[in-house]
Specification:
Four Helix Bundle (Hemerythrin (Met), subunit A), 2 domains
Length: 338
């Protein structure tokens, strides 16, 4: 490969890495905003989709709506619609940021085009992420039209996690040959431990979405004045979710222990796994705040976002531990081009 081609290749790779990292951050911010929408009860702030109260720019006060707006929009949702400017604009800004996220992912897709000649999976996985974001937007419209149906809310969350995993994969793949990964003893055992940790953590997040659905029922039943009763009325799902966190913590403590014992040098895998444990402790702390401080609204989106960030870190550590196998094609291609 000539020097000019090598320089162009490096520049393209550097641009792609930056865009991929930006995209991951933007997706996590979108998840945080989605958590804010849920915690403030703003999910139905816009009763229609893609417009909001029939307009591309939502109203700021009830006088801007027709007198029979409840009849018009309530018919779509088979229920009563109450206008609340804060909830309406919270949901609308969530949609706008979702559209922005789609544009950023499209930029990442464009930046991945040069990889068609040297590492095709980067391009095709970027394309898949872009297509899934479009599907995620459609799924979001169904969440609205079904009045936050529990199964669709859970699928919406699961798909967001899948998109994050795909973006982390292509970003990690683009770093092949540029990041040194420490050697690990007993890799097979640690792999299995990490895989189970990831699987159980994902299950915990999905259970958490079901607990949030039960919370919506409690809010409707007791109202804001009965906030102290919300947690007590959540039932078995909440206690499973709370108890399961002890198992998740134990799995992470075990992961860090086995890595400390089997890694000769404290490189990127060791650092990420240690950060993962700290992140999990903070997440559990926010869960305790939710359970014992009457479910403060600020803690809910933080709790959810930390859970998804932890899943992302687990996935990256898993990729790095198995880099030689997962990114074998990319390594061979780079050696051939040198």
């Amino acid at each position: 490969m000539t020097n000019s081609r090598l320089i162009n290749s490096e520049n393209n790779t550097r641009l792609f890495r930056r865009l991929a990292l930006l995209t991951v951050i933007v997706v996590y911010v979108l998840i945080l905003i989605g958590g804010i929408v849920r915690s403030t009860g703003a999910g139905m702030g816009c009763p229609d989709w893609p417009k909001c109260f029939g307009s591309w720019v939502p109203p700021t006060e009830i006088s801007q709506l027709p007198a029979n707006y409840q009849e018009i929009f309530g018919a779509k949702l088979k229920g009563e619609v109450e206008f609340n400017a804060f909830k309406t604009w919270t949901e609308y800004l969530n949609r706008l940021f979702g559209a922005f996220t789609g544009l950023v992912i499209f930029g990442t897709l464009l930046a991945s085009i040069p990889f068609l000649k040297r590492d095709r999976p980067v391009f095709f996985m970027s394309l898949l992420a872009f297509l899934l974001v479009g599907f995620e937007g459609w799924l979001g419209s169904k969440v609205v039209s079904t009045e936050l149906a529990p199964i669709l809310v859970t699928l919406h969350m699961l798909l967001a996690i899948v998109i994050v995993f795909i973006l982390l994969y292509v970003m990690a793949r683009s770093f092949v040959g540029h990041v040194s990964v420490e050697e690990i003893n007993h890799k097979k055992f640690i792999n299995k431990w990490l895989q189970w940790t990831l699987l159980l953590s994902l299950l915990q997040v999905l259970i958490g979405t079901q607990v949030r659905e039960a919370m919506d029922v409690a809010i409707k039943e007791f109202g804001e004045a009965g906030r102290a009763q919300w947690i007590n009325s959540l039932g078995l799902k909440f206690y499973i979710h709370r108890s399961f966190s002890i198992l998740i913590l134990g799995m992470h403590v075990g992961l860090v222990y086995w890595l400390r014992k089997n890694i000769a040098s404290r490189g990127i895998i060791f650092q990420l796994s240690s950060a993962l444990l700290i992140l999990l402790l903070i997440e559990i702390a926010t869960g305790i705040v939710l359970a014992y401080l009457k479910v403060p609204a600020f803690a809910q989106p933080i709790h959810l976002t930390l859970a998804t960030v932890a899943l992302g870190l687990q996935f990256v550590v898993l990729l790095l531990i198995n880099a030689n196998q997962v990114f074998k094609q990319s390594l061979v291609t780079q050696l051939e081009n040198r």
